Amino acid sequence: MSVLLGRKAPEFIAPAVLGNGEIVGDFDFAATTKGKYALVFFYPLDFTFVCPSELIALDHRMAKLTELGVEVMAVSVDSHFTHNAWRNTPINDGGIGPVKYTMVGDMSHDICKAYGVESIGGDSYYPAGVAFRASFVIDKSGVVRAQHMNDEPIGRNIDELVRVVEALQFFEENGHVCPAGWQKGDEGMINTPTGVADYLAGNSDKL
């Protein structure tokens, strides 16, 4: 996976199914996310195995992500029509139901390549050509602030992605960095030698 941390997130225009079920041919990442936080959530394929559990878990956290001001986009190399069919398949029949975020169709694989998450096969569990199980948290200026990737058999923890957004916003609001295990409501750390010492004096046993 390419290291995009601290760099501008690649922009794209692609066909998609919006969270309201509308199918569009020209979903514009830059226009949609301008001045907003964003989560770009790559997954291998529709109608597969680990993927629906992740996408349903992501949908279950949409109220919180929306509250945090995050635009959410799930991306795979399937077509927007296949995305739509999966959305229209009941969960009990192996579908994901009407998820409330945008699902982007990367049939050209250009988006996967731009983010450095296209599998080339080989020793990986991923077949060649699909997207890795990768997530990118992007700030309001369009810069990637976190990127995560799991191997194909290992589903992601969506609560961790929410936590990362909360930590980013905490840092932006008060300048305090977020130590290991930080959760919303915890104190931060002043990033000076004295600040580190003060924090560790009161919190090292909790780490």
Report on the architecture of this protein.
It contains 7 helices and 7 strands; from the N terminus they run ββαβααβαβαββαα. The longest helix has 17 residues, at 158-174. The two termini are 29 Å apart. The protein is α/β, with parallel strands linked by helices and 207 residues long. A hairpin with a 5-residue loop joins β1 and β2 (23-28). A 7-stranded mixed β-sheet has the order 2-1-5-4-3-6-7. The chain has one domain (13-157): Glutaredoxin (3-Layer(aba) Sandwich).
List the helices and strands and how they pair.
Layout: E1 13-17, E2 23-28, H1 29-33, E3 37-42, H2 50-60, H3 62-67, E4 70-76, H4 80-87, E5 102-105, H5 110-115, E6 133-138, E7 144-150, H6 158-174, H7 193-203
Parallel strand pairs: 3-4, 4-5
Antiparallel strand pairs: 1-2, 1-5, 3-6, 6-7
pLDDT average, as an integer? 95
The name CATH uses for the topology is Glutaredoxin
The total of helices stands at 7
Beta-strand residue fraction? 15-25%
Give the helices and strands as they follow along the chain.
EEHEHHEHEHEEHH
Domains, number: 1
What global shape is seen?
globular
CATH architecture tag? 3-Layer(aba) Sandwich
Main-sheet strand order equals 2-1-5-4-3-6-7
User: Which structural class matches the secondary elements?
Assistant: alpha/beta
Report the CATH superfamily: Glutaredoxin
Span between termini: 29 Å
The Rg value, from CA coordinates, equals 18 Å
- Ranges with pLDDT <50 over ≥5 residues? none
Q: What's the story with the biggest beta sheet?
A: 7 strands, mixed
Can you identify the CATH class?
Answer: Alpha Beta
Q: How many strands in all?
A: 7
Please give the share of residues in helix.
25-40%
